[in-house]
Design brief:
- This protein is of the alpha+beta class.
- It has nine helices and nine strands.
- The protein has helices at residues 3-9, 21-43, 59-70, 93-107, 134-149, 163-173, 186-203, 210-214, 216-221, and strands at 80-81, 110-117, 120-127, 155-160, 181-185, 225-228, 234-241, 244-253, 257-266.
- The strands form two sheets. A six-stranded mixed β-sheet has the order 4-5-9-8-7-6. It has a three-stranded antiparallel β-sheet with strand order 1-3-2, covered by helices on one side.
- Strand 8 and strand 9 (257-266) form a beta hairpin.
- The N and C termini lie close together (7 Å).
Length: 293
């Protein structure tokens, strides 16, 4: 489940230097061998040794990883948007101006209609409203958790992804999430708190709290690491905190939507805590699937 996170941890040195491609290959092969050995032991009916889910990456390694991500800025083409339902890949001038007005009215998005080829128009996304703060997220998460405990279902719209965030995700995963509507589902909070916590405690991981989930927007808007998930359209974000590294999986859905799917936490090794650097926060589609299962 978190073996991928551990494998990634082996890819960074304690000095924060990115490893060479050959070293990356060796680290991945070592992890694959460890997983194969555990599988063979279980197949023979034996008791495989527990995995060590402690995050082995140093504060410097995570600091430089996050710094590299924040250095990615959107180019002109990264800002161009055409709705996912548009099979032509462009608008007429009239439609572009209409969609521009709709985005401003519905989501507060500032965009400009631009002619990218004769008679073909797209929207250049100039800015989107800021994501919700931790203080704004806390009551939302608490309300959704209480909704789930009552056996009810509720979704909360959190915001829309802007060009800066989309450029980072595209550079790291190849996924295009520009102007995706981000939502949080009460069922996914219940899943993370109830089911994942039982699994986590059984294998020595740290349990997730509502406070951790409330950091959702903070993590995806200013992560230390972004990588592709197991399932098509899934994205994993990582961010280091003093008490552990939080991992969030998001899943792209149809119609330019992206949703929280799951969250895990790795403990930070004791020898990595003292000099910890924290930077300030600056479904296959349509299906309910998640990484790690």
């Amino acid at each position: 489940m978190l073996a991928e996170g551990l494998a990634y941890g082996l890819r960074m040195t304690n000095a924060g230097r990115a490893l060479t491609q050959n070293e990356l290959k060796q680290a991945d092969e070592a992890m694959a061998a460890q997983k194969a050995e555990r599988h063979a032991i279980k197949k023979e009916g034996g008791q495989a040794p527990p995995m060590d889910y402690t995050d082995p990456r140093s504060p410097d390694a995570m600091h430089f990883a996050g710094k590299d991500l924040r250095s990615i800025t959107p180019g002109e083409t990264d800002r161009l948007y055409v709705g996912s339902g548009n099979k032509k890949g462009f608008y007429s001038e009239r439609d572009a101006i209409s969609v521009q007005a709709d985005l401003k009215r519905d989501y507060g998005v500032d965009a400009t209609a631009v002619e990218t080829a004769p008679g073909q128009w797209q929207l250049r996304v100039d800015s989107v409203p800021s994501g919700k703060s931790l203080e704004e997220m806390r009551p939302i998460v608490e309300d959704l958790h209480e909704t789930a405990l009552r056996g009810e279902v509720k979704k909360e719209f959190l915001g829309i992804t802007g060009p800066e965030e989309a450029a980072r995700v595209k550079a790291q995963t190849g996924e295009d999430i520009l102007l995706h509507r981000r939502t949080l589902d009460s069922r996914d909070i219940e899943h993370a708190i109830e089911r994942h916590n039982k699994q986590a405690m059984a294998i020595g991981e740290k349990p997730i709290t509502l406070e951790d989930i409330a950091r959702y927007e903070e993590i995806v808007s200013n992560p230390d690491v972004i990588r592709k998930g197991i399932h098509p359209g899934s994205i994993i974000y990582e961010k280091r905190y003093p008490d552990g590294t939080l991992y969030i999986t998001e899943q792209q859905l149809k119609n330019n939507k992206i949703e929280f799917r799951s969250m895990y936490k790795n403990e930070v090794a004791e020898n990595m805590r003292s000099s910890l650097i924290i930077t300030s926060p600056a479904r296959t589609k349509g299906e309910r699937v998640e990484d790690g299962e």
